[in-house]
Design goal:
Elements: H1 4-27, H2 32-42, H3 59-67, E1 71-76, H4 80-90, E2 96-102, H5 106-116, E3 123-124, E4 140-143, H6 150-159, E5 163-166, H7 174-187, E6 191-193, H8 201-211, E7 218-228, H9 246-249, H10 251-262, E8 268-273, E9 288-294, E10 300-306, E11 308-318, E12 322-325, E13 336-338, E14 341-342, H11 350-364, H12 372-391, E15 395-396
Parallel strand pairs: 1-2, 1-4, 2-3, 4-5, 5-6, 7-10
Antiparallel strand pairs: 7-11, 8-9, 8-15, 9-10, 11-12, 12-13, 13-14
Helix pairs in contact: 4-11, 6-7, 7-12, 8-10, 10-12
């Protein structure tokens, strides 16, 4: 039998969810263009993107949908993420489309041209990339390259007059991030970071539950993200251009989750490397790491990342209840629950919503929720994590406090 506190929490969660879905009509889980398909799916529709409904208030979006004119996206780098996720996602987008590709491998270029009907004039390599400035078919450049190459290609894309999405982590250092932001501001182009989970319902639910204290004051957060990294992506193991490793690749998810669950930036961090069980494989990078964030009120976030173990969880414990996502950071199959019951939310095409939201920002001339400043914030925190692990000391975190506004919407 449930006690009074459990019943109180369940009632509060129920009231909160009703308020949240009604309020979505004004601020949305995603852009206004995505809202009606989402509500249709929640009501029993089978596909978020099958509906032909067009939202009335957003005139620019309405015009774009009615005219069928989409913003052109060029993918820079045709590795596993582009092939497995972004290419297929662009077949579902309403406001943008795959218009061009950039690759140094002719075989990949031929494959993509055939599969996605990309014209020869929209195919570039890394030597001809700057000619993209003269191509009106391409409005957005999506940088999907190894981390050390992000700064160069974001700056080149900005100089070419294109809006930009850059994959996470944004860059290797805060200084590189600032140079990227400055280049985009100078060119008057928008810069967004590929934080797909900000457009995912379970994570948006976590943001709103945590930041609105539906489960009370959050005292402890657990963020675990681990995978067994294969040799198929050697740069992730630090080879070639380098810049890989689980802290940069997976730690950014844990960092983000801790921040948007709590709704605050941590004030300090301690960290410790995992022992290397395969010295040759992990010769150039860390095998894994444990790190703990401390917040101003004394609460903590215990995080763990690894390239040699599998785990995938986000949990928050508050004074009135708890929430948990497991798996938490996958492209699909995310499941959530709270101390009052299961999160009855859909799994969605995350990258499709992410890219359509950015297209909406361009069409409507509004800021992205995941700007370069947020990417720079997280790179600064990653640098603090490495410093803590190298020195064995607690390291103060001093970064900007940019936040996704979705979390504080009641």
């Amino acid at each position: 039998m449930k006690n009074i506190n459990q019943l109180s929490l369940q009632n509060e969660m129920s009231m909160y969810n009703r308020r949240r879905f009604l309020k979505n009509l004004s601020f949305g889980f995603w852009s206004g263009a995505m809202m009606l398909p989402y509500l249709s799916a929640m009501a029993g529709g089978s596909d978020l993107f099958d509906t032909g409904a067009i939202p009335g208030p957003a005139d620019a979006i309405t015009d774009a949908l009615q005219s069928g004119k989409k913003l052109g996206v060029a993918l820079v780098g045709l590795g596993k993420y582009s092939e497995g996720e972004l290419g297929p996602a662009l077949e579902k987008t309403k406001l943008c489309k795959l218009a061009g590709i950039v690759t140094g491998t002719p075989e990949k270029a031929n494959k993509w041209k055939k599969k996605y009907n990309v014209p020869d004039k929209n195919v570039y390599n890394y030597q001809t990339f700057d000619r993209i400035a003269d191509n009106p078919d391409i409005d957005i450049v999506y940088i999907v390259l190894p981390n050390p190459m992000h700064e160069e290609y974001v700056i080149r894309a900005a100089k070419a007059g294109k809006h930009i999405i850059c994959e996470k982590p944004m860059a290797m250092t805060v200084q590189e991030c600032q140079a990227m932001i400055d280049a985009c501001k100078k060119a008057d182009r928008k810069l967004s970071i590929g934080y797909r989970l900000h457009f995912e319902p379970h994570h948006q639910n976590v943001m709103q539950i945590g930041q609105n204290k539906i489960i009370g004051d959050i005292k402890k957060i657990i963020c675990d993200d681990g995978q067994v990294q294969s040799e198929e992506s050697p740069w992730r193991l630090g080879r070639g251009v380098g810049g890989g490793g689980p802290v940069r690749d997976l730690g950014v998810y844990c960092t983000q989750a801790a921040i948007y669950t709590k709704g605050e930036i941590p004030v300090s961090v301690i960290a410790k490397y995992h022992p290397k069980t395969d010295v040759e494989k992990f010769k150039l990078i860390e095998e894994g790491m444990n790190f703990q964030f401390q917040f101003a009120d004394g609460s903590t976030a215990d995080c763990k990342v690894s390239f040699n173990e599998k785990f995938n969880k986000l949990r928050a414990e508050g004074t009135k209840g708890w929430l948990e996502l497991d798996p938490a950071y996958e492209y699909k199959g995310i499941e959530g629950k709270t101390s009052s019951g299961k999160m009855d939310l859909p799994n969605v095409p995350q990258q499709t919503l992410q890219m359509d939201d950015f297209a909406n920002c361009i069409i409507s001339n509004k800021p992205t929720r995941v700007p370069g400043e947020m990417g720079m914030r997280d790179v600064g925190i990653l640098q603090s994590i490495f410093e803590a692990a190298e020195t064995g000391n607690k390291v103060k975190i001093n970064v900007n406090h940019v936040m996704d506004p979705v979390g504080n919407k009641k």
